[in-house]
Please model this.
Amino acid sequence: MIVIENFLPDPEALRAEAESAAFQPLVRFFPGVQAPFAFERMNQFIEPHRTTISEAFENVLSFSIIECGFALVTTPPSELLPLQRIPHIDATEPHRLAILAYVSGTQFGGTAFYRHKSTGYEYLDQSRNDLYNIELDRDVEKFGVPKPEYIAGDTDIFDQIAKFDAQPGRAIIYASNSLHSGRIQDAENLSNNVACGRLTLNAFLAPHMQQPTVVK
Model:
């Protein structure tokens, strides 16, 4: 996990640009709308930090963008699906990375990371998925379906283990299989208006792994 300040050198210009972006709803249970963003331009933001990112994540030699876009949280708490009320992961593949850069909407909160109490898992991969889902079902049987609200702290099922505030231009970079969620505040006032909503620029990276050195 790393935090880079001023990752976006001009977040206000990006917010203005997003006003004419082609947003579409509900991709992968995201509680809002998303719009594509050019890989080439995202690479311009990443380029000054490539060495920092590669060194921060073990064995990552280099990486390529596989998905990139604006994201605007718009769903009111009363309309959240059950899976939108708990932490999630972006991918189970090992070493995949995610970049979440805040463009605007600081009043709506940042991002938090979680540990599943029953299993102790802070991340999921293929080997953990089945047990996690079994234990999660048991948790729901015991504690009930989470209330229709954004998770923003410890619950009966999850412990919050880290949180980061939204700040225009700031980026957090983390393993895509980490359990996390937007730490949404003032949720009743979420807006689909880019000028006053919670807007981020997100990217997902596929790494090219450094082969370990074999000592003979």
The two ends are 34 Å apart (CA to CA).
